[in-house]
UniProtKB/TrEMBL annotation:
Keyword Transmembrane helix: no
Organism listed in the record: Marinobacter iranensis
Major subcellular site: cytoplasm
Function: Involved in the gluconeogenesis. Catalyzes stereospecifically the conversion of dihydroxyacetone phosphate (DHAP) to D-glyceraldehyde-3-phosphate (G3P).
HAMAP family: TIM_B
Catalytic activity: D-glyceraldehyde 3-phosphate = dihydroxyacetone phosphate
Signal peptide: none
Protein name, entry field: Triosephosphate isomerase
Catalytic residues in the record: 95, 167
Keywords: Cytoplasm, Gluconeogenesis, Glycolysis, Isomerase
Gene: tpiA
PROSITE patterns assigned: TIM_1, TIM_2
């Protein structure tokens, strides 16, 4: 059975006041939610402990990035084991902003996936094509290659920790969203890639991200291969984020 997940990526936004007001409000409004959705909040690392303290059992907490190494002289880096020790259940890996702005390579993404899984974290592996790649007809080729490289070393017993988030780069923070048909087609393609690798593809949760809002979430989540969302800007509003969580149908 696939998990239904809605994860809020705060990116480089937040404050103690935001943590206190937003997490408390989300927790309160999600209390009666009975559609089985797993809600995850992924704040900047400095606020992880504050979110953990307020989240309770209703909300899982993630970190936005982890290092390729377990420990050592890597100033500014956060080890996956540290994130786990601080109360995180998930980490993002390979977000397009990490790839584009910080030059993160497929090899580094794969190494981070390995470290995350070995530390007991769930790895939300982000994949997606640029507008140029889509217009050139290479979207599925690009995304397939990213998926294959990221999960190359995943062991048979680790697939339950793997989540793949498809985020078309051209839709992140732009207000543009893939059509439901395009999003479903790419998710089906990703599931087929996982199956070809011998993964239990029908058990791996696939999320859509890229300008998901309260008014388009239901149509996206109704697609058979979309199991939830990785939410950016809308996760900074408790009202919007809760509305998106409520849009995920109890379809399993």
């Amino acid at each position: 059975m696939r998990r239904k997940i809605v994860a809020g990526n705060w990116k480089m936004n937040g404050s103690k006041d935001l943590v206190s007001s937003l997490v408390g409000q989300v927790r309160s409004e999600l209390a009666p939610l009975d559609n089985g959705v797993e809600v995850v909040i992924i704040p900047p690392a400095l606020y992880v402990s504050d979110v953990v303290a307020l989240a309770g059992s209703q909300i899982a907490v993630g970190v936005q990035n982890v290092a390729c190494w377990d420990s050592g002289a890597y100033t500014g880096e956060i080890a996956a084991g540290m994130a786990r020790d601080a109360g995180c259940s998930y980490t993002l890996v390979g977000h397009s902003e990490r790839r584009q702005l910080f030059g993160e390579t497929d090899s580094q993404v794969a190494a981070k996936v390995d470290r995350a899984l070995a530390s007991g974290l769930g790895a939300v592996i982000c994949v997606g094509e640029t507008l140029e790649e889509r217009e050139a007809g290479k979207a599925e080729e690009v995304v397939s290659a990213q998926v294959r490289k990221a999960v190359a070393d995943v062991g048979a017993e680790q697939w339950q920790q793997v989540v793949v988030a498809y985020e078309p780069v051209w839709a992140i923070g732009t207000g543009k969203t893939a059509t439901t048909e395009d999003a479903q087609a790419m998710h089906a393609s990703i599931r087929a890639v996982l199956m070809s690798l011998g993964a239990p593809a029908d058990e791996v949760s696939l999320l859509y991200g890229g300008s998901v809002k309260a008014d388009n979430a239901a149509a996206l989540f109704a697609q058979p291969d979309i199991d939830g969302g990785l939410i950016g800007g809308a996760s900074l509003s408790a009202k919007d984020f809760v509305s998106i969580c409520r849009a995920l149908p109890g379809k399993y």
